[in-house]
Amino acid sequence: MSARADILSTIRMRRTGSKPQPSRYKAPPIAGDQVERFAERATIEAAEVRILGSLGEVPDAVADILRARNMAASVHLPPDARIGALPWGTAIALEHTAPGPNDAAVALAPFAIAETGTLVYTSAPDTPASWHFRPGLEIAIVAAGNILPHLEDVLARVGKPLPSTINLVTGPSRTGDIEQTLELGAHGPKALVILVVKN
Amino acid sequence: MSVRPRVGLFVTCLVDLVRPQIGFAAVKLLVDAGCEVSVPASQTCCGQPAWNAGKDADAAAIARQVIDAFEGFDYVVVPSGSCGGMLRRHYPECLKNDPTYAARARAMAAKTFELMSFLVRVRGVTKVDAKFDGRVAYHDSCSSLREMGVRAEPRQLLASVAGLTITELGEPEICCGFGGLFSVKYPEISEQMADGKIADTLSTGADVLTGPDFGCLLHLAGRMKRQGIAVKVRHAAEILAGTSDGPALGEGTG
Amino acid sequence: MNLDPRNFPQNVHTALGDTRLKSALARLKTHFSVSRKKSIARFGDFETLRETGRAIRDHAIEHLDTLLETFEKNVTARCGHVHWARTPAEACEIILTILREAGAKTVTKGKTMVSEEIDLNTYLEEAGIAPVETDLGEYIIQLRGEPPSHIIAPAFHLHKDQVAETFRKAHTTLDPDRALTERSALVGEARTMLRARFAAADAGITGANFLSAADGAAVIVTNEGNGDLTRLLPKTHIVLTGIEKVVANMDEVAVLLRLLTRSATGQDITSYVSVMTGPRAADETDGPQNFHVVLVDHGRSDLIGTEAQDILRCIRCSACMNHCPIYMAVGGHAYGATYPGPLGAALNPGLIGMALAHHHPNASTFCGRCEEVCPVKIPLPKIMRHWRAQEYAKGLAPKMPVFALALWAFAAKRPTLYKFGARIGARVLKFMAGRRGAVRALPLKNGWFAVRDFPAPQGQTFQEMWRRR
Predict the structure, then answer these.
(1) Among B31, B79, C45, C391, which residue's beta carbon has the most beta carbons within 10 A?
(2) Interface test with chain C among B48, B52, B174, B243, by most C beta carbons within 10 Å
(3) pLDDT at residue C188 greater than cutoff 90
(4) Per residue, what are the HEC states of chain C?
(5) Residue C2 has pLDDT above 80, yes or no
(6) Would the CB atoms of C295 and A7 count as touching at under 8 Å?
(7) What percent of chain C has pLDDT over 70?
(8) Measured between CA atoms, how close is A20 to chain C, in angstroms?
(9) Which residues of B139-218 form beta strands (DSSP E)?
(10) Chain B CB within 8 Å of residue C353 CB
(11) CATH class of B127-241
(12) Å from B182 to nearest chain C CA?
């Protein structure tokens, strides 16, 4: 008998009663403003959050972020045309290659989760999944209107079939593996800045 | 005229063998709370050592015996959360496939209580008349806490004892390392866990350690005696009944 | 330490004398239990979440066959491959075949306890393939040749000077005079060294925290991001998982995710949660081209329909061991098996048998804290007792305690005999205790007296005093 047949037949043979269908879970509602809750949670998870009025403000914000962190005025942009179309000007050098472990990179998150301060990325030809794990600093853009209360809400919007990768990103990479003490930048980015765009 | 509830006292094998005072203290507390107390003669052990060791047939035989002995009482009261838990939680489990005793086990379980929670929850006792001068640390005992849900009631009653100060342990809910046969099967771990509880007790400045379960107290008193630590150990029933003027557990005369 | 589970008592002895381990355990205990408590308090109605989680997992176990078939169908529909393994040997062979077909020479690994269970690294090394652990804790212990001592904090037992020493020995291309006193320096060094390994790997192996049957998706949670670099960069991705990890759909995963992270590290969510469905799409440039899932049974299906079934609910959060006074006294290595603490006590006998694992369910006081903190309400002490009953029924229990208990039970079933014996016992022990008030030793070697005295009985039994009133 094949392993598959063996395992399945053991399960079928051994199964006893019938446990009831679990009732659908309703996550506790988010009190107050979604964006505020999102910003609050993301900040607690060591992300920096800035609220912008429009997409046009992104390049200046990026320049300011790099200056504040004493980083070179250079960012990596993914193939996503919407990011390329922002009014970058000449103040920042734009790279189109994959970012290295000390570089800054920009990304556009289609959704975010207010409950946990989480960004949601879905893989696509113009948004390679590994992008979010490579740089030293990730600067993520998310529209305020795409911040939804819970993961379940985001999944409903992402719809079926699922993309090959969905990445939920909350704060920078971290580890507590040495002496139970938190250190940032284990393998993914050491820092995460989130630009919430209101319009 | 109200009818006094008929309580069958399950005295527990350790109390019976080592420290009858606890049994008499329990009787006094129950009588003071308006109960008519009987002690069925054929009780021996609740069967927990057999049950925990996986000797199900022996545990079931003992359980049937206990159920027979305690037939007809309004309540079964136990000065122990461990034996109480055996009767209340595990007898129905142990006898679930027994055609006659399954229902009887459930019926008895429904009327089985640990002593102090019985006094407070069922008899409405809010305070006792006893006096006890001392700083007393209370160890929750895992079965009392997690199987019988006893936490607030002993503290409430102890707080009403004149002269008594409760000093809360840093970790009242952590296991003391007795665990019945565990204490002899894995003595090194048992020792370490006892020492943790003892260090906690000493750090609160308590001069007395108490609790609802005699097994834990025997183990902790024995460990402290071995190390020459002078904290006195008494069962909470003795303190509440005001019968704690004799020697504490393991306290010698010479 | 001898990592045979039968060596538990000797391992315990070593562990109890290890002061560095003791301080590491104290740190682990405070850190995880305090964080968990805070995060649950913040959440609000955690009990409803727990009850829902329990129901989801119970339902999944009841329908494990259809869920696994649905999962397989949906993975295949997305051009992935599902493999079934009854035993560790079958699982290792399947993985080696996949890696050979992929021409893989180096393999990066995200954290997977099933990999420990089947001893995959040893098997691959012997076949000439180099596995590289990328979770920082796993990387450190791989360099040291040690097994993990905790299921989510594998290197908790080490102090930073030990990690520094390990890095100095292993990272020989770096400047030997470099400073490695700060944790951040150690993390930074691992980040640099492993980045190159991620890029060079021919294949990546991860575990799965959950499988969604409806989507044919696997979900992993990490804080480091190593799982994602492991599976996205190489051409081949293998998900190695137990069969019990599957649930119906992603909404159920969302519930369990909330329970997992809070119960484990006290986080509302980990830094990264990744939902992986099949290989990359045709027009994507990132992600594996080959996606394989290896489903491992290794005794799990045989637990269904037994009193140990509920351990299959486990979502591997580690709350049980973080609150277990025995685990917190001896640490993970003492257990000598993949799963330590209450999880191991309930599961190991099913995976490797009671002959090997008998100490695990026996070394428990049944204090019940594990069940209290389990996010899916597994009745862990009940399952441990079940294994003890099995051990006794199969005649495997140690002879002396069985005999002593048999004597006790014999007497307990005969009240007159019992009470007679108790009267004698009370007098004899009182006599032996003398004025000291406690017995120091009994003629037979006994674990009680190794570390304790026995307080003197009053001298008469309660029953005899009561009858005389």
Answers:
(1) B79
(2) B52
(3) yes
(4) CCCCHHHHHHHHHHHHCCHHHHHHHHHHHHHHHHHHHHHHHHHCCHHHHHHHHHHHHHHHHHCHHHHHHHHHHHHHHCCCEEEEECCHHHHHHHHHHHHHHCCCCEEEECCCHHHHHCCHHHHHHHCCCEEEECCHHHHHHHHHCCCCCCCCCCCCCCCHHHHHHHHHHHCCCCCCCCCCCCHHHHHHHHHHHHHHHHHHCCEEEECCCEEECCCCEEEEEECCCHHHHHHHCCCEEEEEEEHHHEECCHHHHHHHHHHHHHHHCCCCCCCEEEEECCCCCCCCCCCCCEEEEEEECCCCHHHCCCCCHHHHHCCCCCHHHHCCCCHHHHCCHHHCCCCCHHHHHHHHHHHHCHHHHCHHHHCCCCCCHHHHHCCCCCCHHHHHHHHHHHHHHCCCCCHHHHHHHHHHHHHHCCHHHHHHHHHHHHHHHHHHHHHHCEECCCCCCCHHHHHCCEECCCCCCHHHHHHCC
(5) no
(6) yes
(7) 100
(8) 7
(9) 162-166, 208-211
(10) no
(11) alpha beta
(12) 6
pLDDT in tens, A61-74: 999 999 999 999 99
Range in B93-102, B240-249, C57-66, C321-330 the model is least confident about: B240-249
Radius of gyration (C-alpha) of chain A in whole angstroms: 20
CA distance B13 to chain C (A): 9
Per-residue confidence (pLDDT) for residue C1, from 0 to 100: 66
Judged by CB atoms within 8 Å, which residues 48-77 of A form the interface with C?
none
Mean pLDDT (whole number) for C291-307 = 97
Q: Which chains touch A (3 or more CB pairs under 8 A)?
A: C
Q: Answer yes or no: is pLDDT of B253 > 80.
A: no
Contact B175 C369 (CB under 8 A): yes
Q: Which residues of C touch A116 (CB under 8 A)?
A: 268-269
Mean pLDDT of chain C: 95
Task: Say if residue B115's pLDDT is above 80.
Answer: yes
Q: Which of A164, A166, A177 sits opposite C284 (nearest CB)?
A: A164
Determine the average pLDDT of the residues in A19-35: 90
Of the candidates B44, B54, B225, the beta carbon closest to that of C455 is on B225
CA distance A132 to chain C (A): 9
With an 8 Å CB cutoff and a minimum of 3 pairs, decide whether chains C and B touch.
yes
Q: Band of the pLDDT at B2, cuts 50, 70, 90?
A: low
Does the predicted model carry a pTM greater than 0.90? yes
Cα separation, A23 vs C56, whole angstroms: 9
- Name every chain A residue with its beta carbon within 8 A of the beta carbon of C223: 173-176, 186
With beta carbons under 8 A apart, name residues in chain C contacting B21. 458
pLDDT digits (tens, 9 = 90+) for A98-153: 999 999 999 999 999 999 999 999 999 998 999 999 999 999 999 999 999 999 99
The whole-number pLDDT of residue A19 equals 78
Quick: pLDDT tens for B42-67: 999 999 999 999 999 999 999 999 99
Contact C325 B193 (CB under 8 A): yes
- Compare CB distances from C455 to B18, B62, B93 and report the shortest one's residue: B18
Q: Does C391 touch chain B (CB under 8 A)?
A: yes
Q: Which residues pair with B36 in a beta bridge?
A: B6
**Every domain of chain A and the residues it spans:** 31-173+183-197
Structure confidence by residue, pLDDT tens digits, C92-109 = 999 999 999 999 999 999
Contact check, Cβ <8 Å, C458/B20: yes
CATH code of A31-173+183-197, in short, is: 3.40.50.10420
Q: Of C221, C195, C287, C260, which Cα lies nearest the Cα of A188?
A: C195
**Which chains neighbour B (Cβ–Cβ under 8 Å, 3 or more pairs)?**
C
Cα(B29)–Cα(C277) distance, integer angstroms: 66
Q: Which residue of B has its CA nearest to C362?
A: B182
Nearest CA in chain B to C22: B192
